[in-house]
Amino acid sequence: MTSGNESAGARGRSRAVTALLLAPTSAWYLLLLIVPLIILLVFSLGARAPEGGYAPALQLDNYLELPTRATAFFNTLWMAAGGTMLCLLVGYPLAYYLATRAGTKRTLLLVLVVVPFWTSFLIRTYAWMTILGNQGIPAIAEGLGFGHMALINTPLAVMIGIVYNYLPLMVFPLYVSLERLDKRLLEASKDLGAGRLATFRQVTLPLSAAGLLSGAMLVFIPIMGEYVIPALLGGGKVFFVGNALVDLFLQSRNWPFGSAAAIVLILVILFAVTLYLRLGSRAGIQREVSIL
Amino acid sequence: MDRNEFRDLYHDLRRGRITRRHFMAVTGLGVASAVVAACAPAASSPTPGPTAEPTPPPSEGATPAPTIDVNADWTPPEGVDLGDTLIMTTWPNYHDQKTLDRFKELTGVTVQLNIKGSNEEMLAELLVGGTGWDVLVPTNYTFETYGSKGIVEKLDLTKIPRFDASRYDQRLLSPAFYPAGSKDQYGFNKDWGTTGFTINTKQISTLLTTWKEFFERTQADLSGKVMIHDYQLTSIGSALVALGYSFNSVDDAELAKAEELLVAVKPHLFAITSDYQPAMRSGDAWMTMTWTNDAVQLHRDIPEIEYVIAADGGEIWSDFFAVVTGAPHREAAYAFLDFMATPKVAAQDAIFHGAPLIDSAAIALLPAEATGNKITYPDPASLTKLEFGTAELLTSQARADLWARVKSA
Asked: Does the pTM of the predicted model rise above 0.95?
């Protein structure tokens, strides 16, 4: 009996310690995630105050107004999906090379992938304004006789900025999963008569799928909320939901409508992520996706 | 001599690299100082414009003639702790860094600039509060909202001894009083100007003269080479003017027409931005909606960029210095306002930014090439169709929503 009491006491103490250790994070999440989300939800049902801001109300008008932002949602979705796909196409061969072929240069090359992060994201994006501007690549192309081309302030410029900025986030998870790949499996596949392509499709790709999914998620979700790249490289013409939100809160001061747009953006991202995970599990990926 | 050379020379003089006599001779400032002498004490001129005809400089004797020497005119207030920082929320390309450096030399206060693209952007943050901003450079149409909401404070004129209302054009100063017509003053003019457009004449040979042509040609031969402001007031207003309506219209049907025009024009624009100088300088864009000060700066460096005040109308504006209510560096804010109210300081700053001044004493100090600049001081006849923005436009939901829709279209 006494020993049972003691162990119950110990269990209680350990539970208290756990609660204490989790308290800071819980408070953090409550204050900076749950509470803001509730505020956003309440605001989204409100009305715009006469000079801007929020006035209490209970209405769905803001959600009904959302079709006027369809272009922004469409831009965001296709650029995020397309950007993720491009990052994957560019990043996979690089990650594969780093993991399997780089040899002694591997550390150096890995550092080189990280080097751009040593400069502020904003400054690097500003640099692209010059590179893509008339005196940059278009001037060189014209000098080489390719005729005039417009790059800056086009969807292509935004896409270049996205791929450039998010590529490392795709490369690293892929690199980790490819690096763990057991080389003997490739030899076995070869021994059993599979060609290079078949080996890649049936062995390498499925085994790196977990890294692929985490990479895709790490890239896709932040692009969905992107604001800076379209603002700087899109010239206010290639508009994401993030840019629409900034306008609604910081220029036209329509907080309720902005809140409704933000809520729907969150729902769209949740939906897309769920879809991703479903696709992943259907493809037979049993391994834990590292970021989730 | 262009302004840059002048600035450099002035700098050299202050640093003692050249003699005052050399400076006076090279810059022709002897002329300007003579004008000052003739105008002192300065009388207020009814409208801002070119000053009196320059008179021959007095012969230099043992005592050198006065120049634009800030030291002689302004000293920091005594016995007041100014701190070391001042945050000013203002517009792009609007202050000479040398002016701000001078203020730091004299007071130890570093002026941090916080650049915005529209009054609405400023308002959005001010309404939330806690901005930490000290000095604001709002436009004429904002004071009714800022005054009624207590966003900027009623000026304590005892802290701005260099400000003298009699030197100011009363019509241009009047928006700073709230309620309108009262004696409660919330700001004083920094300068005034117009919203027209600049054209790179190397690329565009046939000059445009109206907003109607501006929007038509943007959709035709100039597609992809034109910019408009990221600012509901000027972009919607100029589109309204192009359609033959008032710059200040809030009529639903007229606004719908303007929205239609802007949405149609949007795919043909190079960019929607209020910081348009870089793209004009690099040649990425050939034409842009432009404020006077930017036009002066662009034309000064690239002479083929010309400024047009549209013949069919548009905006005339005046910007003010104001102190944000609850400014964390309030004493420094007032010291800065007093510094800028000093005619020599305002004149020196205007040589850089290029917008026309309102303080007659400061205008009198400007070199002839500044007062003779046709972009800064245009033919008064070209201003007759222009309209000042009205107070209701700052908070008009119809215009705010319209602009947000156009941008996300």
From this structure: no
